[in-house]
Design the sequence.
C-alpha cells in the first residue's frame, strides 16, 4: 500500500463515489411515482398516536 | 414503575445490576487509590442502588394489563428529567468556568476547581448529560410513535438510559480528579469508553428491533437521523478512543495515534460529534416535533431525504478545517474546506424545510412559546451552519482560529440550536407523557424562551467581538514592522466581553432552572387529561404492514 | 426534449429509485447505507495520512521525552492545560514572529496524544522551552498574577508540595512503546530512577539518566527544592523541553532579518 495508490484512490474513487451517490439520491427523492408515498409518510406522524397498532 | 416489568424481566435487571456491581468491585480492588479505584466505588454505588430498587419489588405481582396496547414511556420520562437535571448542572458549570475567565480567583483553593478540570465537566455535562439524555429519551418516544409499535424490550431501554448516565457520572467525576485523555469531547478514559460501547450496541439493537416491529411501511425520516446518530457516533467513538492503558490497575492510557495522525483522527471525531451527535440526532427531534406541534406535515419530504444524505455524506469530510495552516498536509485542509462549504446546501435545506413548514402557521408561532422554541432553533441552525461554512474557509479561519469566535460559533449552535430544539421538544412531550392538559405554567415557558434567547444573543455577540478583536490584535504590526500588542494586551481587551459572556450564560442557566421547575410542577400539579385511545391505528397506510419481527 | 433523452435510461432509474425505497423499508439496509455514505469520507481522508511519507519529515536528531518530562506531560494533560494553550504554531507570519518557527509534523511524532489545542486563552507553548527560567516558571505556576498581573490562569501551587509518583513510570513508558515510541528496555526498566535523577543533579541517578538519554538532557533542580522530586519538577521539566526535541524547524526556517 503506497501513498500514491491510496491518495490516487482517494482523489478518483472518492469523486466518482460522491457523484454516483448524489445522482442516486436525487433520482430517488424526485422520482414522480414515489411522491404519494412521501406525502403519506409526511402525514403519518400527524395521525393519532395514542397507542401502538396491534 | 417496576409494576410494568414481568417477573422474569425484574430478575434479568437484578442479574445485570449484580454483574455491574461486581465489575465495579473488581475496578475498586484493582485500582485501589488510583482514580480507577474511586470510579470502581462509584459503579458499586450506582449498581447497588439499581439492585436495591429492583430487589424491593422482585415479588410484586405480574403486570395485569396487556402491554402491547400502549407505548412504553417510563424510560422516556426518566430520561427527560435526567436531561433537565444535567442541563442545570452542565450549564451551571459553564457559568462558573465563564466567570473564572473574568475573575480568575472565583474558585476554591483546590486542584479540582481549576478551569482546566471543570471545563470538560461543563462540555460533557451539556453535550452528553443534557443533549445525550434528551436524544435517548426523545428517540424512545419518536421510534415508538412513528413505528406505531411498543419498544422492543423492557429491560434494554433502562440499560441504555441508566448505563449512559453512569458513563456521564464516571466522565464528570473523572475530570475533577484529573482523569482525562485530553481529546476534546472524548476525554473519558479507556474503561468508560469500553462501557459506552456496550451501552451503545444495546441502544442500536433496541432501535433496530423496534423499527422491525413497526406497523408503518415507511420508516419516517426522523428515525433515519436518529439511526445515523447512533451508528456514526459508535464508529467515531471506537476509532478515536483506541488507546493502550498504562496498566490495568490505573486510569491512565495513551492514544494509539500520535502527532498529525492523531490530530486528524481527533478532529474527524470532533467535527462529526458536532455532525452526528449535535446535528443529526437533533434534526431527528426537529423533523418529528416541529410538524407535530405545528400540526402540519413537513414542507417537503423529498427535501428532507436529500438533506439527510447530504449531511451524512458531506460532514464526515469536514473535520480537517479545524487544522488550517497547521502541520497537516495541505490537500487534506483543502478537502475539509471544500466539503465544509458544500455542507451549507443540505444544512440550509433542513433549516429552510423547517421554516417553510411553519408557513401558514405563523399565528401559532406567535402564540405558542413551545413552537417558537423550535422555530428559533431552526433559525439558529441555519445561522450557525452558515457561520461554520464561512469559518472553514482558510482565510477566515486564519483570523478566527484559536480565538473566542470559535467558542461563540459553537455556542450559537449549542445554545441556539441544540438546547432550544430540546427545550421545545420537552415542553411538547411532557404533557403528553404524563397525561396532563398543559404545562403547569405557560408563563414560565414564555419567560424561559426570552431568557434563553437573550442569553444566547448576549453570549454570541460578546464572543464575536472578543474573538475578532483578539484575532486582529494578534496580527497587528507597528509601522516599524514589529508586533503591536503583547499577548497580555489582548487579554486585557477581552475582560469586558468575558463579563458579558458570563451574564449571557447566567440568563440561559436561569431559563433551564425554570424549565426543570416547570416540568416538576407539571408532573405534580397540572390537571390530568387522559387522551382517548382507539385501536387499531388510524393510519391511512394502504400498503400491507411489514410483518413484525416477533 | 429532456424526457426523450432520459427515456432510454428510465428503467434503470426506476429500478434504482424503487430499490432505494425498498431498502429503506428495511432498517438494516438503511443502516448499511449510512455506513457506506459516512464511512468513505473518513477513510479517504485519514487512510492516506498513514501512508504518506511527506506528512512527517525526517529529523535524525529527534529525541524522546525523558521519564520526568513524560510525567510532566501527563500532569499537563491531567490539569487540562491544553484547553487554553495550543502547541501548534501555524504557518502565518504573525505567529512565526510571536512564537518562533512554525511547527512541523515531526515535532509531535511521539506525542500520544497530540496537544495541538484549539483555543488560545493563553499563549501558544510549542516553543516555550528555555524561554523563561525555571524559577520564573515555578513562580508563575504558584501564582500567575504575581508574575503577570493581567493573567487569568489558575494557580498550581499544590504541585510544589505533591511528591511525584515515579512508580508507575515503567508501565507508562512500556505503554508508549506499545503505541510506537522507541523506548529501549533499559530506558523502561530504569524509568523511575531516571525520573528522580533528572531533578537531582550530581547523583548516580542523574548519571544513569544522561547515559540513557544523552548529554543534552536538562538535569536541574527544576522546582528549586533539593529535598524531593515534586510534580512541579516534572511539569517544569516538560515545559522547558517544549520546542527542543529537534533543531529541524530552526534549521529549515532561518529567522527573519530585522
Sequence:
Amino acid at each position: 500500500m503506497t501513498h500514491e495508490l491510496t491518495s490516487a484512490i482517494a482523489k478518483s474513487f472518492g469523486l466518482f463515489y460522491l457523484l454516483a451517490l448524489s445522482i442516486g439520491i436525487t433520482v430517488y427523492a424526485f422520482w414522480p411515482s414515489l411522491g404519494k408515498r412521501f406525502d403519506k409518510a409526511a402525514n403519518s406522524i400527524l395521525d393519532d398516536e395514542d397507542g401502538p397498532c396491534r | 414503575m417496576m409494576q410494568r416489568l414481568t417477573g422474569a424481566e425484574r430478575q434479568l435487571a437484578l442479574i445485570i445490576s449484580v454483574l455491574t456491581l461486581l465489575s465495579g468491585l473488581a475496578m475498586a480492588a484493582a485500582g485501589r487509590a488510583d482514580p480507577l479505584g474511586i470510579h470502581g466505588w462509584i459503579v458499586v454505588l450506582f449498581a447497588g442502588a439499581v439492585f436495591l430498587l429492583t430487589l424491593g419489588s422482585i415479588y410484586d405481582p405480574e403486570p395485569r394489563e396487556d402491554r402491547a396496547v400502549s407505548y412504553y414511556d417510563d424510560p422516556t420520562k426518566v430520561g427527560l428529567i435526567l436531561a433537565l437535571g444535567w442541563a442545570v448542572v452542565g450549564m451551571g458549570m459553564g457559568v462558573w468556568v465563564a466567570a473564572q475567565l473574568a475573575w480568575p480567583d472565583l474558585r476554591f483553593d483546590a486542584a479540582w476547581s481549576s478551569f482546566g478540570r471543570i471545563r470538560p465537566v461543563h462540555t460533557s455535562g451539556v453535550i452528553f448529560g443534557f443533549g445525550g439524555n434528551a436524544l435517548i429519551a426523545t428517540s424512545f418516544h419518536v421510534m415508538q410513535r412513528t413505528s406505531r409499535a411498543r419498544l422492543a424490550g423492557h429491560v434494554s431501554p433502562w440499560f441504555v438510559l441508566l448505563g449512559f448516565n453512569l458513563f456521564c457520572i464516571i466522565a464528570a467525576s473523572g475530570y475533577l480528579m484529573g482523569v482525562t485523555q485530553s481529546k476534546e469531547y472524548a476525554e473519558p478514559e479507556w474503561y468508560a469508553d469500553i462501557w459506552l460501547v456496550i451501552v451503545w450496541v444495546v441502544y442500536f439493537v433496541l432501535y433496530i428491533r423496534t423499527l422491525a416491529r413497526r406497523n408503518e411501511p415507511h420508516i419516517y425520516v426522523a428515525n433515519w437521523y436518529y439511526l445515523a446518530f447512533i451508528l456514526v457516533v459508535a464508529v467515531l467513538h471506537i476509532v478515536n478512543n483506541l488507546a493502550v492503558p498504562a496498566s490495568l490497575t490505573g486510569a491512565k492510557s495513551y492514544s494509539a495515534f500520535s502527532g498529525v495522525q492523531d490530530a486528524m483522527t481527533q478532529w474527524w471525531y470532533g467535527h462529526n460529534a458536532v455532525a452526528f451527535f449535535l446535528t443529526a440526532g437533533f434534526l431527528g427531534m426537529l423533523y418529528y416535533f416541529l410538524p407535530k406541534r405545528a400540526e402540519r406535515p413537513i414542507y417537503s419530504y423529498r427535501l428532507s431525504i436529500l438533506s439527510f444524505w447530504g449531511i451524512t455524506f458531506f460532514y464526515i469530510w469536514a473535520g480537517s478545517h479545524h487544522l488550517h495552516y497547521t502541520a497537516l498536509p495541505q490537500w487534506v485542509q483543502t478537502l475539509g474546506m471544500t466539503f465544509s462549504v458544500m455542507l451549507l446546501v443540505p444544512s440550509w435545506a433542513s433549516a429552510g424545510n423547517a421554516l417553510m413548514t411553519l408557513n401558514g402557521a405563523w399565528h401559532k408561532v406567535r402564540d405558542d412559546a413551545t413552537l417558537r422554541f423550535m422555530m428559533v432553533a431552526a433559525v439558529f441552525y441555519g445561522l450557525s451552519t452558515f457561520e461554520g461554512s464561512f469559518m472553514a474557509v482558510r482565510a477566515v479561519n486564519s483570523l478566527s482560529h484559536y480565538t473566542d469566535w470559535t467558542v461563540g460559533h459553537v455556542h450559537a449552535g449549542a445554545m441556539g440550536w441544540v438546547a432550544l430544539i430540546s427545550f421545545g421538544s420537552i415542553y411538547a412531550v411532557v404533557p403528553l407523557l404524563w397525561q396532563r392538559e398543559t404545562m403547569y405554567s405557560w408563563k414560565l415557558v414564555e419567560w424561559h424562551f426570552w431568557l434563553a434567547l437573550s442569553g444566547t444573543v448576549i453570549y454570541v455577540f460578546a464572543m464575536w467581538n472578543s474573538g475578532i478583536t483578539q484575532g486582529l490584535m494578534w496580527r497587528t504590526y507597528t509601522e516599524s514592522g514589529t508586533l503591536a500588542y503583547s499577548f497580555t494586551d489582548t487579554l486585557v481587551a477581552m475582560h469586558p466581553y468575558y463579563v458579558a459572556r458570563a451574564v449571557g450564560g447566567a440568563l440561559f442557566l436561569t431559563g433551564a432552572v425554570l424549565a426543570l421547575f416547570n416540568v416538576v410542577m407539571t408532573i405534580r400539579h397540572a390537571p390530568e387529561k387522559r387522551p382517548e385511545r382507539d385501536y387499531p391505528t388510524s393510519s391511512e397506510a394502504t400498503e400491507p404492514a411489514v410483518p413484525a419481527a416477533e | 426534449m429532456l424526457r426523450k433523452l432520459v427515456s432510454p435510461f428510465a428503467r434503470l432509474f426506476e429500478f434504482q429509485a424503487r430499490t432505494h425505497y425498498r431498502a429503506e423499508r428495511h432498517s438494516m439496509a438503511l443502516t448499511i447505507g449510512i455506513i457506506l455514505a459516512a464511512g468513505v469520507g473518513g477513510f479517504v481522508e485519514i487512510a492516506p495520512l498513514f501512508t504518506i511519507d511527506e506528512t512527517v519529515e525526517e529529523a535524525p536528531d529527534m529525541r524522546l521525552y525523558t521519564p520526568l518530562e513524560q510525567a510532566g506531560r501527563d500532569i499537563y494533560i491531567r490539569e487540562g492545560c491544553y484547553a487554553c494553550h495550543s502547541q501548534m504554531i501555524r504557518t502565518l507570519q504573525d505567529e512565526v514572529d510571536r512564537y518562533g518557527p512554525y511547527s512541523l509534523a515531526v515535532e509531535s511524532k511521539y506525542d500520544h496524544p497530540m496537544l495541538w489545542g484549539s483555543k488560545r486563552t493563553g499563549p501558544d507553548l510549542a516553543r516555550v522551552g528555555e524561554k523563561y527560567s525555571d524559577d520564573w516558571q515555578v513562580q508563575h505556576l504558584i501564582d500567575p498574577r504575581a508574575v503577570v498581573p493581567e493573567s487569568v490562569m489558575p494557580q498550581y501551587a499544590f504541585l510544589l508540595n505533591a511528591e511525584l509518583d515515579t512508580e508507575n513510570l515503567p508501565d507508562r513508558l512500556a505503554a508508549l512503546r506499545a503505541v510506537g515510541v522507541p523506548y529501549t528496555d533499559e530506558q523502561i526498566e530504569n524509568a523511575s530512577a531516571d525520573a528522580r535523577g533528572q531533578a537531582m543533579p550530581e547523583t548516580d541517578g542523574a548519571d544513569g539518566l544522561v547515559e540513557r538519554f544523552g548529554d543534552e538532557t536538562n538535569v536541574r533542580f527544576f522546582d528549586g527544592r533539593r529535598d524531593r522530586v515534586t510534580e512541579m519538577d516534572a511539569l517544569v521539566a516538560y515545559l522547558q523541553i517544549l520546542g527542543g526535541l529537534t533543531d529541524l524547524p530552526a534549521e529549515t526556517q532561518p529567522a527573519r532579518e530585522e
About this structure: Chain C has 13 helices and no strands. The mean pLDDT of chain C is 88.
